[in-house]
Design brief:
Blueprint: E1 4-6, E2 12-17, E3 24-26, H1 39-55
Antiparallel strand pairs: 1-2, 2-3
Length: about 55
């Protein structure tokens, strides 16, 4: 599994998998790590979590 590390400057370097599709996302020195490929995958995760809460 790929891993992003936080540097001395507070920026993330390396790769992390998308939480929805597990595609590797290069962090490119960002201050906050990217967790999703794009907004659609973030929305899908949110909707699926809400659906699980409603159904339980």
């Amino acid at each position: 599994m790929a891993q992003a590390r936080r540097g001395d400057d507070g920026r993330y370097h390396g790769e992390l998998p998308c939480r929805w599709c597990e595609a590797l996302l290069d962090q490119k020195g960002r201050r906050r790590p990217r967790r999703y490929c794009g907004p659609w995958h973030r929305t899908k995760t949110y909707v699926s979590n809400v659906f699980v809460l409603i159904m339980s």
